[in-house]
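Structure in, sequence out. Go:
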């Protein structure tokens, strides 16, 4: 089985790789990221053999992507049974960038680059089982400071939903995971962030489980049951703090 990961340096992808290695006897990986050193650390962490993976440096923040080189690197995977994952994220924007450069970077990494790669691979995905895309709750909860990120994610979701309708019950199946906040860090969180939080390990587990089912669908995390549980746990704490001001 082939696992092709774009944005393989994220916390969710790390947990997913860990699960795949436990469940799959002979996995082969194609890891792509804009930071090749992080990918090397990832490979060393899991002690993967040299014939078990390929690394590819791909900077999604740039508008110009060499699709021909990408196809050459993916050539040996495209004829096999594939699971393809897209884990785009908000880039770390340096203070030295102009407002226009920041806008271009956010749109490129979360919309333009993804669409280019996807369109490039679409005709070659005959053997692909599942395409997984991690979206964001920002699609429905956009603030002024991240409206570009929200618009980019919404655009990709709309594109993938149209493909769901096009393929219907045929392969590849498309699964979108609309995620709230990831609570892997110990940073202070607002009430809303605590309410809408899930761990990378939790998300990765659910991605793996859903990938085993031949279905195209939009999934929400945290789920309603967990959302209600979080709410019941947080309300007493919130009220206690308010009463003790």
């Amino acid at each position: 089985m082939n696992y092709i990961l774009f944005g393989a340096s994220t916390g969710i992808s790390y947990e997913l790789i860990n699960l795949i290695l436990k469940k799959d006897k002979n996995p082969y990986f194609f890891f792509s990221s804009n930071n090749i050193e992080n990918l090397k650390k990832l490979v060393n962490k899991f002690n993967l053999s040299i014939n078990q993976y390929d690394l590819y440096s791909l900077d999604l923040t740039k508008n110009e992507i060499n699709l021909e080189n990408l196809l050459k690197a993916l050539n040996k995977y495209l004829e096999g049974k594939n699971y393809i994952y897209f884990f785009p994220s908000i880039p770390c924007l340096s203070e030295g960038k102009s407002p226009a450069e920041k806008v271009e970077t956010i749109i490129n990494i979360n919309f333009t680059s993804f669409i280019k790669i996807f369109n490039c691979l679409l005709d070659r995905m005959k053997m692909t089982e599942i395409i997984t895309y991690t979206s964001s709750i920002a699609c429905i909860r956009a603030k002024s400071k991240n409206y570009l990120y929200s618009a980019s994610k919404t655009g990709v979701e709309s594109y993938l939903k149209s493909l769901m309708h096009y393929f219907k019950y045929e392969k590849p199946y498309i699964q979108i995971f609309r995620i709230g906040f990831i609570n892997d860090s110990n940073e202070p969180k607002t009430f809303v962030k605590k309410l809408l939080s899930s761990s990378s390990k939790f998300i990765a587990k659910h991605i793996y489980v859903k990938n085993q089912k031949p279905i195209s669908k939009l999934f929400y995390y945290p789920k309603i049951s967990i959302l209600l549980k979080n709410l019941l746990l947080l309300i007493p704490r919130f009220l206690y703090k308010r009463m003790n001001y």
